[in-house]
Design goal:
It is a single chain. The chain has a six-stranded antiparallel beta barrel with strand order 2-11-14-13-12-15. The two termini are about 60 Å apart. The longest helix has about 35 residues, at about 1-40. By secondary structure, it is of the alpha+beta class. Strand 16 (about 315) and strand 17 form a beta hairpin. It contains five helices and 22 strands. It has four domains: about 40-50 and about 305-385, Beta Barrel (conserved putative lor/sdh protein from methanococcus maripaludis s2 fold), CATH 2.40.420; about 55-65 and about 210-305, Elongation Factor Tu (Ef-tu), domain 3 (Beta Barrel); about 65-95 and about 175-210, RNA polymerase II/Efflux pump adaptor protein, barrel-sandwich hybrid domain (OB fold (Dihydrolipoamide Acetyltransferase, E2P)); about 100-175, Helix hairpin bin (Helix Hairpins, Orthogonal Bundle), CATH 1.10.287.
Length: about 375
């Protein structure tokens, strides 16, 4: 009997021990499985290198190459306007007529005065010639000869004075007809017909040239140094022209490329920037003076640069970084230095080299200094299929 009881007790103890061991092992396995499930699964990609032309973007403004205020250069009533506001006008085209009568009268008088002066000069010259012959024969006094000489010189001077007066009268008369000094587009009329205008009246209207046209922009000293180092800005003006592109306010790319033709000779002490300018063809007048555009200046020299897609670069208070995986399969922050943006990439100047690996998928669940599971391409495909 005692033997049977001992066997029963032994079986009971064995069952209890088995259940306890099985429970602990189950907890261990479940914890291990949960840990494996919670460890982020990631994919690695390699840092690449591309050939590209270095470029810099900056806000710019469209500026007319020529902008001329049309002003009255003589006084009088504004009789005629020979254009419609907003018209495209040609150089030399008649635009305004100021009342010309008084200036025409002055011109006619000046012409008559010149004719009189010339006639008097001819007579004085003849008188002098006769007196010169007579004084040589002692038929007249030397003083009489001197008088005719002086009269001749005065008459010739009067001719010059009358000629100058005629030129002045003709100039004033011509000023009654105001023409366009350039090809361009005329703006709003500031003074209407019938008003009295003078040299103090200000601009009657303004003409601005539209083709070619300027785009001006500014870069800071660091950007300008980058332009010079990248040979975007040549050392000498005679070198290969610099290509410039602009994007219009609606986001469309302007179809004509410009040429950089000017950069200032100093950095502004107020803004810390330097002014640059490019000239663009504008046959369809899409570039309007005063409009704001985005300017892109790029080098003619092809360079090799280390790049990484922008989506994989994160940022904290220390700076920009990517996640890399060390030999222990732990995610680590790798801080990088970025020089500029190129298409969908960041150009990396320090921190990464070509061929270095970084985490490119699974970033959302990655925690710095925590383990990760690196998937191979086929494992990644299976994981996506399960989802």
């Amino acid at each position: 009997m005692k033997k049977k009881i001992g066997i029963v007790l032994l079986v009971i103890v064995a069952l209890i021990a088995f259940r306890w061991i099985n429970g602990k092992f189950g907890e261990f396995m479940r914890a291990k499985m949960m840990g494996a499930m919670m460890t982020p699964k990631v994919k690695l990609s390699q840092v690449g290198e591309i050939e590209y032309k270095n470029e810099i973007e900056a806000p710019g403004r469209v500026v007319a190459k020529y902008s001329v205020d049309l002003v009255a250069r003589v006084d009088g009533y504004l009789l005629e306007k020979k254009f419609n506001e907003g018209d495209y006008v040609k150089k030399g085209q008649l635009l305004f007529v100021i009342e010309p009568q008084q200036y025409l009268i002055a011109l006619n008088k000046a012409q008559a005065d010149l004719a009189t002066a010339k006639a008097q000069a001819i007579k004085a010259s003849k008188d002098f010639a006769r007196s010169k012959e007579l004084v040589a024969k002692d038929y007249i006094a030397k003083s009489t000869y001197d008088d005719t000489l002086a009269q001749r010189d005065v008459a010739n001077a009067n001719v010059k004075a009358a000629t100058a007066a005629l030129n002045d009268a003709r100039r004033n008369y011509n000023y009654t007809r105001i023409t366009s000094p350039i090809d361009g587009r005329i703006g709003m009329l500031n003074v209407t017909q019938g008003n009295y205008v003078s040299t103090q009246s200000g601009a009657l209207a303004r003409v601005v040239s539209t083709n070619p046209i300027y785009v001006t922009y500014n870069v800071d000293s660091k950007q300008f140094a980058n332009l010079r180092d990248s040979e975007i800005i040549p050392k000498n003006k005679g070198e290969q022209p610099i290509s410039v592109e602009v994007t219009l306010p609606d986001g469309t790319k302007y179809e004509h490329k410009g040429v950089e033709d000017f950069w200032d000779n100093q950095i502004s002490q107020t803004t810390g920037t330097i002014a640059l300018r490019a000239t663009f063809a504008n046959p369809d007048n899409r570039l309007i003076p005063g409009d704001f555009v985005k300017v892109k200046v790029y080098s003619n020299k092809i360079q090799k640069k280390v790049v990484i897609p922008q989506d994989y670069v994160l940022q904290d208070s220390t700076g920009r970084y990517v996640y890399v995986v060390d030999k222990d399969s732990v995610a680590r922050k790798k801080y990088v230095k970025i020089s500029n943006e190129y298409q969908k990439f960041w150009v990396v100047t320090d921190g990464l080299n070509v061929g270095d690996e970084f985490i490119s998928e699974g970033l959302v669940k990655v925690i710095a200094d925590k383990p990760v599971v690196v998937l191979k391409d086929d494992e990644l495909i299976k994981l996506k299929d399960k989802k």
